[in-house]
Amino acid sequence: MAEFQGGENLLFLTDEQLRQGIEAMFFAYRGFTADPDRILATMAYGRAHHRAVHFISRSPGTTVNNLLNILGVTKQSLNRVLRTLVEDGLVDSRVGKADKRERHLFLTDAGEALERKLSDAQRARMRAAYRAAGPEAVAGFRQVLEAMMEPELRRRYYGIRENEV
Amino acid sequence: MAEFQGGENLLFLTDEQLRQGIEAMFFAYRGFTADPDRILATMAYGRAHHRAVHFISRSPGTTVNNLLNILGVTKQSLNRVLRTLVEDGLVDSRVGKADKRERHLFLTDAGEALERKLSDAQRARMRAAYRAAGPEAVAGFRQVLEAMMEPELRRRYYGIRENEV
DNA sequence: TTGGAATGTCAACAAAGCTGACTTAATATG
DNA sequence: CATATTAAGTCAGCTTTGTTGACATTCCAA
């Protein structure tokens, strides 16, 4: 049967298989964001706030510019989100020591608390999915995801962590 | 080393592994939508139009209600999208024969052309990722995605195709 | 025949993205 | 030192895509 595809096992590359993969990606992403979204809906924040908080948590002291590059949005869009987070006391924006033009971003205790609440929910689903699928499936999952990213982003994603103040 | 995790290989469930999976999902989804988004940006359509066209193409004759359930948006939101697609001659909305309240949705030739253009771009990236990762990785990828979906949606997704007119 | 379901429409609004123009401060460079 | 560039922030206005709520129409089914 695989012979019809050119002598190799390329059945996983039929249009039908690809379509199923596309839909699985669509539905899974909905599940992926569902739990944090439910939490965020009870407060004055949205998915954009979650993303900002997540990446500040991962790289404390990251600059606004770093965040812009990671998130891939305009500074006006990010600024609106960061402003509310700073005003609400969830994010601390400190002028850089070496370069005073830069602002280094940190989560406050309240910010850490929100981050934990959101990522606990998201991790719980991820953990359940990983556990259900098993370690080998997870390795494959990661491989396909990595191959699906924009090459430039994959480099950054597996490159240097920007967390030096 | 795995023994620290409870005697099994559960290292893939550490918070750090989960965080990496979460970020991979985020970046990969960006790649996943990047190509269709670039095409859509050149016309008066957005991601919502792509989704509608995709699922009408998959299940020709599907009803508005079916589409609402699959897409998980409000009818007002979907209606705005469908209206422009019908006005622009990409989608044909036919009154149901059995139940005249229902509208059955079909792509016109122009609609099929747009769908093909968008999904060709998306499939090309998917195909490249699948090819790079290999069949076993793809099987794992699908397993994890399926486990990540909302259970109710997973049932529908693997249930009956709604394409009877 | 009447109640409820499916669909559609109007209005108003919110989140989160965008562009463009501009300021301020600080750094880097010629 | 003078100038150019960079980082960050702000204002204004726009777009897409989601949301509620209210209401009309059509039509099936009890």
UniProtKB/TrEMBL annotation, chains A, B:
Transmembrane segments: none annotated. It comes from Roseovarius lutimaris. PANTHER family: TRANSCRIPTIONAL REGULATOR, MARR FAMILY, TRANSCRIPTIONAL REGULATORY PROTEIN. GO terms for biological process: response to stress. One of its GO terms (molecular function) is DNA-binding transcription factor activity. Residues 15-150 form the HTH marR-type domain. PROSITE patterns: HTH_MARR_1, HTH_MARR_2. Keywords: DNA-binding, Transcription, Transcription regulation. Gene3D superfamilies: Winged helix-like DNA-binding domain superfamily/Winged helix DNA-binding domain (1.10.10.10). InterPro entries: HTH_MarR-typ, MarR/SlyA-like, Tscrpt_reg_MarR-type_CS, WH-like_DNA-bd_sf, WH_DNA-bd_sf. This is DNA-binding transcriptional regulator, MarR family. It comes from the Bacteria. The keyword Membrane does not apply.
